[in-house]
């Protein structure tokens, strides 16, 4: 276990946020915990303790801060420590216990049978053939079929150490992912799935519907008409995570956001906030040949650090300068000042 876990980094598959987590022998969370983005769920294991009842782990939780790379570019990501040395992440996983069944004492009838001479007609020339030994699976089946009172542990017991070891490995695989594998991607929101699909293909976003147009193909472009100001979170504020992220939005003919994909993530759970805000936004749809048509709009969103964390409106900072990113429309970009006309 130490060779496999200690010093290694993993993702918590469930995105559990509590610093004390307990899982049963199947890798299922025992109790409750708030969940968050996988970008707040990277864990480095620092200590491993194994006994016959539990696997106990201590570790450090990290947040992922993406540095503005598009899917077709090399990914640049900072790991930012979230847990302190005084309050590390603690994870406990129950183990299946190996129980050696007690030998049944022979009854009087069994003793009498042993004393009786063997029946030659019931055996071959070499005597009776020995019964084949039971396999571990057959033994486990017998234990599982027995009443819980036999072991006192129900389905948490086995008579095979190999079976118990495999159950622990399966539980670990249910709790942790060593990387962003396909099984983990399948559990992420659709906008992250689209992002990692583009990362794998090293390409830019293409809508699921090939008939959706680009802004350059319409007579009148779609535009944002409501204010987008997604909320930051305590993790980002405490660790100084701010900046701009970019999203691809399919603006439907009714002026609402359809499919959304991450173009340049920021991480730290902020992309989830941005997408949630974008879905509530209002747009003027694109027009082609006099009809409203769906188009892809690239939208830049800015996250800021507040000087004082408060719930009052007075905590909002001054308006930032216009984003420098080329191309996409910015949700927070101020309008340029009107230029004087020559006389």
Write the element-wise H/E pattern from the N-terminal end onward: HEEEEEEEHHEHEHHEEHEEHEEEEE
N-end to C-end Cα span? 81 Å
CATH architecture call of the largest domain: 2-Layer Sandwich
Structural class, by secondary structure, is alpha+beta
The CATH class label of the largest domain is Alpha Beta
CATH homologous group name of the largest domain? TonB
If you consult CATH, what is the topology of the largest domain? TolA/TonB C-terminal domain
Q: Which regions contain 5 or more consecutive residues with pLDDT less than 50?
A: 146-154, 309-329, 333-338
Main beta sheet: strand number and arrangement? 7 strands, mixed
- How many structurally independent domains? 2
From the spread of the alpha carbons, the general shape counts as elongated
Percent strand = 25-35%
Rg measurement, Å? 31 Å
Helix run count: 8
The number of distinct β-strands equals 18
Percent in helix:
10-25%
Mean pLDDT: 82
Give a structural overview.
The chain has 343 residues and is of the alpha+beta class. It folds into two domains: 2-97 and 164-185, no CATH class; 190-330, 2-Layer Sandwich (TolA/TonB C-terminal domain), CATH 3.30.2420. The protein is 20% helix and 25% strand. It has eight helices and 18 strands. The protein has helices at 2-5, 108-115, 136-145, 161-175, 182-185, 190-201, 234-238, 270-280, and strands spanning 9-12, 20-23, 42-50, 54-66, 77-81, 89-94, 97-98, 157-158, 176-177, 213-214, 223-224, 243-251, 257-264, 283-284, 286-288, 291-293, 295-303, 329-330. Strands 1, 2, 3, 4, 5, 6 and 9 form a seven-stranded mixed β-sheet that branches. Strands 10, 12, 13, 17 and 18 form a five-stranded mixed β-sheet that branches. It has a two-stranded parallel sheet with strand order 7-8. The longest helix is centred in the middle third of the chain and has 15 residues, at 161-175. It is elongated, with a radius of gyration of 31 Å.
